[in-house]
Specification:
The chain is of the alpha+beta class. It has 15 helices and 31 strands.
Length: 790
């Protein structure tokens, strides 16, 4: 046959194939989102009665696409659930794991923001610019904290494919300098794929007095002494589900349910705490042994798995004093109560879905930990977790004063690090340590009656949070889009897990994964794991320079708990994985590695965007509230002045907050108490310094000014405070110490009221602290000094 004839034959055949393919296509092209609306020709019919209306354009999800629920618990390690051998009952997790699948080789990034962005985008955390938590962002690509448009989240993909979408609870993915009423709002939840958001933007919140948003609108808290955010967010989620299925029963939904639990502060009603009294008196060493025995019996870990040694900094339980044991046991009782309550709230949400008749076709991911359990409580735990971020170690005698109130509104607590190591059994390390499975491996179960045949089966394939998004797309019958909202997309790094759903022996498809967090780094490849421990969570500085780190090598195929270091025996394999790490780190924008931690919290000590950059003053007025710390003028480690113009009506006594920043566990306030002006500095809830006038204000207009002269010589030093009324000096006093890094995770700066918890207990919070006069202006100014990095 001649070449021209052959080409003609091939062309006819290809045309036939293309025609057949086109006729088989039943839906729109979903690789470019949003799906464009068809263009209808202009009508030539005069009278509408004679015209035929076109079919209404609407985007629908593929037929049979499941509802999707992602449950992401905070700061809970591998042994956090009873299904994984843990000491705390988690009946909701256990029940769904028993009716679905349980994965014992599922990994996170080792801390919050990176895990959350990776989970929802399907890309590695540095690709999302989330090399660490958003509050520690820098100017370097990979670490800015600003999610790029080329990594659209799966929520947006589903929304543009006909899903209803909602997020409840913790977000922690909006760049710190963007979390204000000035926006931009591009990286707030409602522009990251979610129609509905009810929760908090930062890394943690006070469960008794949270700073929460409904969409982009701040929520006013109810005056209810029994209020708890975890219950509130679940009520919101349950109501949303019922509305969706009442109004649009055929439209699938995506719910991202992410409690602040069990991240510090460990806040939980006393009823839950009392259930655990005396249950952990055996201590963390015995607990680790008990957990491992249960894990082996349950088959969660292989027979013969050894217990990794504790970090040297964690003392043996038997060496502790009676007071230490009493305090530490109480800390863990409160943590256990918090987890048990959280698991019940997850059950409430899932029951609501079942009540709508949607249970069988709902794909549920139960990720019980965005990283390993947190050891940020240090050696003794904390009455106020803010002490950790300000490098202040609390003493056992001081904390024992609060033991009966632990977990209540009067505390902002965390637990001793020994408990974190126990809940990461059988591993050695914890949250922040991306180079150990104790920092990255968590309990994970998948439930989907319509799509999973097995009941209670174990899956051992290596997987990572970046695999969740592609799994959802495959389950929904959707392609990974190439263009979203006009932006060409970076392909997902994750792989779908569906291949393993109904085949326990399926060969791993996720065979290569790098890990890096604050200099702790590792490389996984085809069962081999090379790693270096650069810094422990409780250590202020790295152990050694990055180039001098000591690397270890493990064969995870027969060393589940990473106890047999093969680096000396197999240096060639170690070198191979070290080279692969650098290749993956470069590809994923993980270079240069930034091992700084605490100094990155303060924007002035690192190079990153700052809403107040270059500003030395800000002028506000009454009604301006809800300014979180990262979008307000930084007054730490420098001199400052606050000048307030106020008006008091004739015949009334002035009372209330003029200006406050922070709250019960750290902050400062200029206020009037029963007519007398004063300034308070609350140092971490541990010490309070007051500079107060002795004479009451007269009715009418007044100018109240407070000046603070910082001592200098380093971070967190003291200074002298001076109070003026109408330019007359009325009081002076010493403020012996100040907080160098942070006042609060989400307490705010407010004019004329103190939202959430009070800086000044005598004034009170919320409505009780509202100023009784007018505040036309408040100006906060600082002396622009460069603080020492001592």
């Amino acid at each position: 046959m001649k070449r021209n004839a052959l080409n003609t034959t091939i062309g006819v055949a290809l045309s036939a194939v293309c025609a057949a393919s086109a006729s088989a296509q039943t839906g729109p092209d979903r690789t470019t989102l949003p799906i464009p609306e068809p263009r209808y020709p202009n009508s030539t019919v005069l009278d509408v009665r004679s015209a035929t209306p076109p079919e209404r354009f609407q985007v629908k999800a593929p037929a049979g696409a499941p509802n999707v629920i992602i449950v992401l618990i905070d700061d809970l390690g591998f042994a956090g659930t009873s299904a994984y051998g843990g000491p705390i009952s988690t009946p909701t997790f256990d029940r769904l794991a028993g009716q679905g699948l349980i994965y014992n080789n599922f990994h996170t990034t080792a801390v919050s923001s990176p895990t959350r962005s990776a989970l929802k985008s399907g890309r590695n955390h540095h690709v999302n610019n989330m090399g660490a938590i958003i509050e520690t962002g820098t100017a370097f690509p990979g670490n800015t904290g600003q999610i790029p448009n080329e990594v659209a989240p799966v929520a947006e993909m589903l929304r543009l494919n006909g899903y209803s979408t909602a997020a409840f609870g913790k977000w922690h993915e909006t760049a710190a300098w963007e979390a204000s009423v000035s926006g931009p709002f591009d990286r707030w939840p409602t522009r990251q794929g979610f129609d509905k958001f009810y929760g908090f933007l930062g890394g943690e919140t006070n469960q008794w007095a949270p700073f929460i948003y409904d969409g982009t609108h701040q929520v006013e808290l109810p005056d209810d002494p029994n209020y708890h955010f975890l219950t509130d967010m679940t009520d919101q989620a349950v109501a949303w589900v019922k509305y969706q299925k009442a109004l649009t029963p055929d439209r699938p939904f995506l719910i991202y349910y992410a409690p602040g639990a069990v991240h510090a502060p460990h806040h939980v009603p006393k009823f839950w705490i009392d259930r655990w009294k005396g249950k952990f008196d055996q201590g963390w060493d015995k607990m680790r042994e008990e957990i491992l025995a249960r894990q082996i019996k349950l088959g969660i870990v292989p027979e013969g798995t050894k217990l990794a040694p504790k970090p040297e900094a964690i003392p043996d339980w038997e060496t502790l004093s009676a007071d230490q044991k009493r305090l530490f046991a109480r800390q863990f009782e409160v943590f256990a109560a918090f987890l048990e309550m959280t698991d019940q709230e997850v059950g409430r949400l899932l029951q609501a879905v079942k009540d709508t008749g949607q249970g069988d076709n709902t794909l549920v991911f139960l990720v019980y930990g965005d990283n390993g359990t947190s050891a940020e409580g240090g050696a003794n735990g904390m009455f106020s977790e803010m002490t950790y971020f300000n490098s202040v170690e609390e003493t056992v005698p001081d904390m024992l004063k609060f033991i009966d109130k632990w977990g209540g509104p009067e505390t902002y607590p965390h637990m001793a690090a020994g408990w974190a190591v126990a809940l990461d059994t059988p591993y050695q390390w914890t949250k922040q340590v991306a180079s150990d499975h104790g920092g990255t491996k968590v309990g994970m179960a998948v439930y989907w009656p319509k799509g999973i045949k097995g009941k209670g089966e174990l899956r051992t394939q290596f997987h990572h949070v970046i695999d969740v998004a592609p799994t959802i797309l495959e389950a929904a019958g959707l392609p990974e889009p190439k263009v979203v909202n006009g932006v060409k997309q970076r392909p997902m790094d994750g792989v779908s897990m569906i291949y393993s759903f109904n085949d326990a022996k399926a060969k791993d498809r996720h065979v290569t994964q790098y890990f890096e967090m604050f200099g702790n780094r590792a490389m996984y490849h085809e069962g081999w794991f090379a790693r270096t421990i650069h810094r422990a969570p409780w250590e202020q500085t790295p152990r050694r320079p990055l180039a001098e780190d000591i690397w270890e090598l493990y064969d995870t195929s027969d060393d589940f708990s990473l106890v047999n270091d093969l680096a000396a025996r197999n240096p060639q394999k170690l070198a191979e994985l070290q080279a692969l790490f650098l290749k993956e780190a470069e590809k994923n924008r993980a270079l240069p590695i930034d091992d700084r931690v605490f100094e990155r919290v303060n924007a002035e000590l690192v190079s990153r965007p700052d809403l107040m950059a270059g500003r030395t003053s800000i002028t506000l007025a009454e009604g301006m509230t809800g300014m979180t710390e990262n979008v307000f003028l930084n007054i730490k480690n420098k001199s400052k002045s606050i000048t307030a113009e106020i008006e008091v009506q004739e015949g009334k006594t002035a009372n209330g907050i003029i200006f406050a920043q922070g709250g019960r566990f750290g902050g400062w306030a200029l206020y009037v108490k029963d007519g007398t002006p004063a300034y308070d500095y609350n140092f971490l809830g541990l010490q309070r310094f007051t500079v107060a006038a002795t004479e009451k204000l007269k009715p009418g207009k007044s100018t109240i000014k407070f000046e603070f002269g910082y001592d200098g010589g380093g971070l967190g030093k003291g200074g002298t405070g001076t109070l003026f009324v109408n330019d007359k000096k009325v009081s002076e006093g010493r403020i012996e110490r100040t907080q160098p890094m942070i006042f609060s995770a989400d307490e705010t700066a407010d004019v004329g009221i103190d939202l959430a918890t009070p800086v000044v207990e005598a004034i009170g919070a919320e409505a009780r602290s509202r100023f009784t006069g007018r505040i036309p202006s408040v100006t906060v100014s600082v002396h622009q000094e460069t603080p020492s990095k001592e």
